[in-house]
Amino acid sequence: MINESNKEPLKSSGMNEHFNFFIKSIPDHLEIAKKWLDKEKLSYSYKEIDEVGKIYKKLFKKSKKKGKWYDEKYEVFITYCGEAWIKYFFGKWELNTYKKTYGYGNPMVMNYGPKDYHWSALDFERWLRYIEEGDKDALSLPYSRTVNYFYKTPEWEFDPLKNLNDE
User: Fold this and answer.
1) What is the pLDDT of residues 67-79, one digit of tens each?
2) 8 falls in which pLDDT band (50, 70, 90)?
3) Is 157 left (phi over 0), alpha (psi -120 to 50) or beta?
4) Where are the domains of the chain?
5) CA angle (69, 15, 35) in 5-degree steps
Protein backbone atom coordinates (compact mmCIF):
# COMPACT_ATOMS: atom_id res chain seq x y z
CA MET A 1 0.00 0.00 0.00
CA ILE A 2 1.26 3.47 -0.77
CA ASN A 3 2.11 5.69 2.17
CA GLU A 4 0.01 8.86 2.09
CA SER A 5 3.02 10.88 3.31
CA ASN A 6 4.65 10.25 -0.10
CA LYS A 7 1.83 12.06 -1.87
CA GLU A 8 2.94 15.43 -3.15
CA PRO A 9 0.96 18.07 -5.01
CA LEU A 10 1.55 18.17 -8.74
CA LYS A 11 3.98 20.89 -9.71
CA SER A 12 2.53 21.23 -13.17
CA SER A 13 -0.98 21.08 -14.43
CA GLY A 14 0.42 19.29 -17.49
CA MET A 15 -0.03 15.89 -15.87
CA ASN A 16 -3.59 16.73 -14.88
CA GLU A 17 -4.35 17.93 -18.41
CA HIS A 18 -2.85 14.78 -19.92
CA PHE A 19 -4.81 12.58 -17.50
CA ASN A 20 -8.09 14.39 -18.28
CA PHE A 21 -7.39 14.01 -22.01
CA PHE A 22 -6.61 10.31 -21.44
CA ILE A 23 -9.94 9.77 -19.64
CA LYS A 24 -11.87 11.58 -22.40
CA SER A 25 -10.04 9.47 -25.01
CA ILE A 26 -10.99 6.08 -23.53
CA PRO A 27 -13.93 5.51 -25.93
CA ASP A 28 -11.74 6.43 -28.92
CA HIS A 29 -8.93 4.18 -27.72
CA LEU A 30 -11.33 1.25 -27.36
CA GLU A 31 -12.65 1.87 -30.89
CA ILE A 32 -9.08 1.61 -32.19
CA ALA A 33 -8.61 -1.63 -30.23
CA LYS A 34 -11.78 -3.04 -31.84
CA LYS A 35 -10.42 -2.19 -35.29
CA TRP A 36 -7.08 -3.87 -34.53
CA LEU A 37 -8.92 -6.98 -33.33
CA ASP A 38 -11.47 -6.79 -36.16
CA LYS A 39 -14.35 -6.95 -33.67
CA GLU A 40 -17.58 -5.06 -33.20
CA LYS A 41 -17.53 -5.55 -29.44
CA LEU A 42 -14.71 -6.21 -26.99
CA SER A 43 -15.14 -9.33 -24.84
CA TYR A 44 -12.05 -8.96 -22.60
CA SER A 45 -11.67 -12.75 -22.68
CA TYR A 46 -8.24 -14.15 -21.88
CA LYS A 47 -7.87 -15.05 -25.56
CA GLU A 48 -8.67 -11.48 -26.61
CA ILE A 49 -6.33 -10.02 -23.98
CA ASP A 50 -3.50 -12.26 -25.26
CA GLU A 51 -4.26 -11.17 -28.83
CA VAL A 52 -3.90 -7.54 -27.74
CA GLY A 53 -0.53 -8.46 -26.22
CA LYS A 54 0.58 -10.04 -29.51
CA ILE A 55 -0.52 -6.98 -31.48
CA TYR A 56 1.38 -4.77 -29.05
CA LYS A 57 4.52 -6.88 -29.41
CA LYS A 58 4.26 -6.75 -33.21
CA LEU A 59 3.71 -2.97 -33.31
CA PHE A 60 6.41 -2.37 -30.73
CA LYS A 61 8.98 -4.25 -32.83
CA LYS A 62 8.14 -2.03 -35.80
CA SER A 63 8.75 1.18 -33.87
CA LYS A 64 11.07 1.07 -30.88
CA LYS A 65 11.57 4.82 -31.05
CA LYS A 66 9.44 6.89 -28.76
CA GLY A 67 7.50 9.56 -30.54
CA LYS A 68 3.98 10.67 -31.35
CA TRP A 69 3.09 7.46 -33.21
CA TYR A 70 4.36 5.34 -30.35
CA ASP A 71 2.63 7.37 -27.64
CA GLU A 72 -0.78 7.34 -29.34
CA LYS A 73 -0.69 3.58 -29.92
CA TYR A 74 0.77 3.02 -26.48
CA GLU A 75 -2.16 4.76 -24.82
CA VAL A 76 -4.58 2.47 -26.67
CA PHE A 77 -2.87 -0.52 -25.07
CA ILE A 78 -2.80 1.11 -21.61
CA THR A 79 -6.52 1.87 -22.00
CA TYR A 80 -7.41 -1.65 -23.11
CA CYS A 81 -5.47 -3.25 -20.23
CA GLY A 82 -7.06 -0.93 -17.67
CA GLU A 83 -10.58 -1.29 -19.01
CA ALA A 84 -10.18 -5.08 -19.05
CA TRP A 85 -9.05 -4.96 -15.41
CA ILE A 86 -12.00 -2.74 -14.48
CA LYS A 87 -14.36 -5.19 -16.25
CA TYR A 88 -13.03 -8.06 -14.15
CA PHE A 89 -12.32 -6.37 -10.82
CA PHE A 90 -14.02 -2.96 -10.93
CA GLY A 91 -11.90 -0.01 -9.79
CA LYS A 92 -11.37 3.38 -11.36
CA TRP A 93 -8.78 5.35 -13.27
CA GLU A 94 -6.75 7.81 -11.23
CA LEU A 95 -3.63 9.85 -11.81
CA ASN A 96 -0.61 8.56 -9.91
CA THR A 97 0.52 11.54 -7.85
CA TYR A 98 2.88 9.59 -5.61
CA LYS A 99 6.30 10.90 -6.61
CA LYS A 100 8.30 8.10 -5.00
CA THR A 101 6.56 5.32 -6.92
CA TYR A 102 7.03 3.74 -10.30
CA GLY A 103 4.60 5.28 -12.72
CA TYR A 104 4.44 8.78 -11.25
CA GLY A 105 2.22 10.86 -13.52
CA ASN A 106 0.64 7.84 -15.23
CA PRO A 107 -3.02 6.82 -15.31
CA MET A 108 -3.50 3.87 -12.97
CA VAL A 109 -6.40 1.70 -11.86
CA MET A 110 -7.09 1.96 -8.14
CA ASN A 111 -9.77 0.86 -5.64
CA TYR A 112 -10.51 -2.46 -7.34
CA GLY A 113 -11.68 -5.76 -5.89
CA PRO A 114 -14.20 -6.52 -3.17
CA LYS A 115 -14.91 -4.41 -0.12
CA ASP A 116 -11.95 -4.25 2.29
CA TYR A 117 -9.60 -5.81 -0.27
CA HIS A 118 -6.08 -4.43 0.10
CA TRP A 119 -5.49 -3.51 -3.53
CA SER A 120 -2.34 -1.98 -4.97
CA ALA A 121 -2.38 0.62 -7.73
CA LEU A 122 -1.91 -0.89 -11.19
CA ASP A 123 0.38 0.77 -13.68
CA PHE A 124 -0.14 -1.02 -16.98
CA GLU A 125 2.92 0.63 -18.48
CA ARG A 126 4.99 -1.84 -16.48
CA TRP A 127 3.06 -4.78 -17.93
CA LEU A 128 3.73 -3.56 -21.46
CA ARG A 129 7.42 -3.11 -20.61
CA TYR A 130 7.53 -6.83 -19.74
CA ILE A 131 6.20 -7.62 -23.21
CA GLU A 132 8.76 -5.27 -24.79
CA GLU A 133 11.55 -7.01 -22.90
CA GLY A 134 10.25 -10.46 -23.82
CA ASP A 135 9.57 -11.47 -20.22
CA LYS A 136 5.89 -12.25 -20.70
CA ASP A 137 4.11 -13.74 -23.66
CA ALA A 138 0.64 -13.97 -22.16
CA LEU A 139 -0.84 -10.60 -21.28
CA SER A 140 -3.80 -12.41 -19.69
CA LEU A 141 -1.64 -13.97 -16.97
CA PRO A 142 -2.16 -11.21 -14.34
CA TYR A 143 -5.92 -11.34 -14.98
CA SER A 144 -6.20 -15.12 -14.68
CA ARG A 145 -4.00 -15.24 -11.57
CA THR A 146 -6.13 -12.63 -9.84
CA VAL A 147 -9.38 -14.36 -10.85
CA ASN A 148 -7.99 -17.63 -9.45
CA TYR A 149 -6.97 -15.88 -6.25
CA PHE A 150 -10.50 -14.62 -5.65
CA TYR A 151 -11.98 -18.05 -6.40
CA LYS A 152 -9.54 -19.75 -4.01
CA THR A 153 -10.19 -17.18 -1.28
CA PRO A 154 -13.92 -17.56 -0.57
CA GLU A 155 -14.02 -15.02 2.26
CA TRP A 156 -14.00 -12.29 -0.39
CA GLU A 157 -17.37 -13.45 -1.79
CA PHE A 158 -16.40 -11.88 -5.08
CA ASP A 159 -16.94 -13.30 -8.55
CA PRO A 160 -14.76 -11.38 -11.00
CA LEU A 161 -16.25 -13.15 -14.02
CA LYS A 162 -19.83 -12.20 -13.11
CA ASN A 163 -19.31 -8.68 -14.43
CA LEU A 164 -18.19 -10.08 -17.79
CA ASN A 165 -21.22 -12.35 -18.05
CA ASP A 166 -23.77 -9.67 -17.14
CA GLU A 167 -23.57 -7.94 -20.51
Assistant:
1) 555 577 888 999 9
2) very low
3) left
4) 14-165
5) 35
